[in-house]
Amino acid sequence: MKTDKNISFTYKEFDKDEELDPSDLELLSSARKVASNAYAPYSKFMVGAAVRLESGKIITGANVENVAFPSGICAERAALSNASSNYPGDRPIALAIAAYTEKEHSGEPISPCGSCRQVIAEEEYRNGKNIRIILGGKNKIRIIESVRDLLPLQFNGDSLKVNLR
Ligand code: THU
After folding, report:
1. Nearest residue CA, atom 1 of ligand 1?
2. For residues 104 and 114, what is the distance between their CA atoms, to the nearest angstrom?
3. In degrees, to the nearest 5, what angle opens at C-alpha 62 toward C-alphas 58 and 67?
4. How far, in Å, from the CA of 13 to the mean position of ligand 1?
5. CA distances from 27 to 57, 59, 61, 114, 165 (A)
6. CATH for 13-152, options being 3.30.565.10, 3.30.420.140, 3.40.140.10, 3.40.50.150
7. Ligand 1: nearest atom to the Cα of 65
8. How far apart (Å, rounded) are the C-alpha atoms in residues 134 and 28?
């Protein structure tokens, strides 16, 4: 029998930094700041990401490009790898992302690429904890409660268990 299914999600949108919780604004400010450390000579698109750990620590990362383009890494994966490598067991609870291009921060928020969504999904899965995603533009900020909303019907550890049955 054919059934039509629908997936929708709700996220929050703000138009001013001051409307954010102070800890979210602190995280977003860290992401904006670290964007200036990006190595992006090819795209000139500098991205910063900041991860908030359960302990309250903030761990950051920026995109690092490579002349062999696929060898570059996005800011989100740089930050999450940094956090996982240096603070194992301290679970990520939020991730802020900001982009800097053409001499200013982007007005519109940017959203993580597909590979980064998959990596964020792995972090949520392994830790059993949602990661709030804060997408920060200068004129608009979006907050999404879990990467499940950005990557529905995702392939994760549960999918492997299903296949083994
Ligand atoms: N990039 C990120 O670091 N994060 C994103 O969310 C989108 C894209 C990087 C990859 C590449 O270095 C540059 O931005 C242009 O795609």
Report:
1. 74
2. 25
3. 160
4. 22
5. 10, 9, 12, 22, 42
6. 3.40.140.10
7. 12
8. 7
Token pair belonging to 141: 């900020």
Which protein residues are within 6 Å of ligand 1, measured from CB?
40, 43, 45, 47, 63, 65, 72, 74-76, 97, 110, 112-113, 116
Q: Output the pLDDT for position 76.
A: 98
**Residues whose CB falls within 8 Å of the CB of residue 125, separated by 6 or more in sequence, listed in order:** 156, 157, 158
Residues 6+ apart with CB under 8 A from 72: 42, 63, 64, 65, 66
Query: Which ranges of the chain have pLDDT less than 70?
Result: 163-165
For the annotated catalytic residues, the residue numbers are: 76
pTM of the predicted structure, to 2 decimals: 0.95
